[in-house]
Amino acid sequence: MSAIDQVEVRxxxxxxxxxxxxxxxxxxxWRAINNSIPTKVNLVRCKxxxxxxxxxxxxxxxxxxxxxxxCTHLASVWESHPxxxxxxxxxx
Length: 92
Description:
By secondary structure, the chain is mainly alpha-helical. 48% of the residues lie in helices and 0% in strands. The radius of gyration is 15 Å and the shape is globular.
């Protein structure tokens, strides 16, 4: 990892741990960033299940990005508040 990447990573962690939110929210963010949420992709990798297709949309593998942002069944959640409008123009 280059020095620039290390600085960016440190800045991300400072922002996450500096948020004024409950500890469980910070913990969830830490898990999401480190890909340690039990998504279907992670469960297949650990041989807990054998298929990683999203149960809701059946459109793709359920990794962290899909489970939190890309699944079409989440559109109503993210569209319910105007502060999330940036998602339509952002690729994660």
